[in-house]
Amino acid sequence: MKNSIKYLLGGAIAYVAYIYFRKGSAAKTLNIKLRTIKLQPISEAAIILDIINPNNANLNINSITADVNINNFALSTLNYQLPATIPANSSKSFELRLKINPLEAITFLASLFTSKKINEINLKGTVSAEGFTAPIDITQNLTK
Question: pTM of the prediction?
Answer without folding.
Answer: 0.69
